[in-house]
């Protein structure tokens, strides 16, 4: 089985964005919020939005199941307050649930969290629990910077985050560390802010002792781990200078990287530097980079091709395509095993 760990509902019907725009207008005019109804989206609209996009690409590129979440750049936790964020989050998560209900063989849900600048992460625990227990989701996307590029929250290793981690451990679900849109002009969202956050999260894990306190807590750092694989020697050296344990003991028992790296040399570097057991297949289709690479004639985000063309053994490819996803997302393994026995 080919499991894509990184998919967002970037093709959702326009009614979803229309709702969001009205919600944002209501920040300045609360009377609009009082009369704002949830978006009216039919099952057929959902089918149409997926059949020509994610589902078609699954068939064409040879993947089987996508771990699917709301559009990351649209989380926009910096907009409005906690109440605004919670309503927007619930609308987005409920739509993902409908996708999974319509296509249970193609998608499994991961939730957005109702984060807001300065709001304690503990306030996101209830929505996480709802999505896991009531909607059958297997994980969450955790934004380390709800301020949208200003980095006003404590590091991910700070105890401020611990109540949410406690809920994650209780529910046996991981988090993908994923920022949202940037409102800082210095940081392009997908070209800088995303990669900055991936790299920053890994360095925070080195500096802290999070996994001593939560030995079963798991994170996926997307986009190939940001700059980490390219600078692996730097991070090993920094950890050594800080008198931290070796990275394979201190961090890598709990952290995975995905393969959202959009050229063969980049994937080859990732596969050479990072242990196979820490890599999950991911494409982020349809996502940040949607064009065709003129040097290859193939889509940049057709990342399965890069794994297929690598020098990995069949066993290693199986780990990246399926085995590691089962370890990172324990609830996914249970879902897939239940399907086999049904």
Question: What does the model show?
Answer:
This protein starts with a strand and ends with a helix. 46% of the residues lie in helices and 10% in strands. It has one domain (3-341): TIM Barrel. The chain is α/β, with parallel strands linked by helices. It is globular, with a radius of gyration of 19 Å. The strands form three sheets. A five-stranded parallel beta sheet has the order 4-5-6-7-8. Strands 1-2-3 form a three-stranded parallel beta sheet. Strands 9-10 form a two-stranded antiparallel ribbon. The longest helix has 21 residues, at 82-102. It is built from 15 helices and ten strands.
Quick structural gist:
This protein is α/β, with parallel strands linked by helices. It has helices at 14-28, 30-34, 43-51, 54-61, 82-102, 125-133, 162-171, 189-207, 210-213, 232-241, 247-250, 264-273, 303-308, 314-328, 330-341, and strands spanning 3-9, 65-70, 107-109, 140-142, 175-177, 219-221, 255-258, 279-280, 292-293, 298-299.
């Amino acid at each position: 089985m080919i499991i894509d760990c990184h998919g967002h509902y970037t093709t959702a019907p326009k009614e979803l964005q229309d709702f969001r725009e009205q919600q944002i207008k209501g920040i300045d005019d609360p009377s609009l919020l009082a009369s704002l109804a949830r978006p009216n989206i039919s099952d057929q609209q959902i089918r149409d939005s997926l059949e020509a996009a994610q589902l078609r690409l699954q068939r064409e590129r040879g993947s089987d199941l996508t771990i699917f979440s709301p559009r990351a750049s649209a989380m926009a936790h910096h907009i409005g307050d906690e109440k605004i964020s919670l309503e927007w989050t619930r609308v987005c998560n409920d739509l993902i649930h409908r996708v999974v209900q319509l296509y249970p063989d193609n998608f499994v849900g991961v939730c957005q969290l109702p984060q807001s600048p300065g709001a304690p992460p503990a306030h996101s625990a209830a929505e996480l629990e709802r999505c896991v227990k009531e909607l059958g989701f297997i994980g969450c996307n955790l934004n380390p910077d709800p301020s949208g590029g200003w980095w006003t929250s404590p590091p991910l290793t700070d105890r401020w985050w611990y109540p949410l981690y406690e809920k994650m451990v209780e529910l046996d679900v991981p988090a993908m560390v994923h920022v949202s849109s940037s409102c800082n002009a210095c940081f392009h969202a997908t070209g800088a802010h995303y990669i900055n956050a991936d790299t920053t999260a890994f360095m925070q894990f080195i500096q802290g002792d999070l996994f001593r306190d939560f030995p079963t807590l798991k994170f996926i750092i997307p986009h190939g781990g940001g700059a980490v694989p390219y600078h692996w020697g730097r991070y090993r050296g920094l950890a050594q200078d800080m008198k931290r344990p070796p990275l394979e003991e201190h961090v890598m028992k709990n952290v995975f990287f995905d393969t959202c790296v959009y050229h063969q040399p980049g994937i080859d570097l990732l596969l050479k530097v990072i242990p196979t057991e820490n890599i999950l297949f991911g494409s982020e289709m349809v996502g940040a980079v949607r064009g065709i690479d003129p040097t290859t004639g193939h889509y940049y985000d057709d990342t399965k091709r890069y794994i297929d063309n690598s020098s990995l053994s069949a066993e290693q490819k199986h780990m990246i395509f399926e085995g590691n996803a089962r370890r990172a997302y324990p609830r996914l393994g249970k879902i897939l095993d239940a399907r086999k026995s049904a």
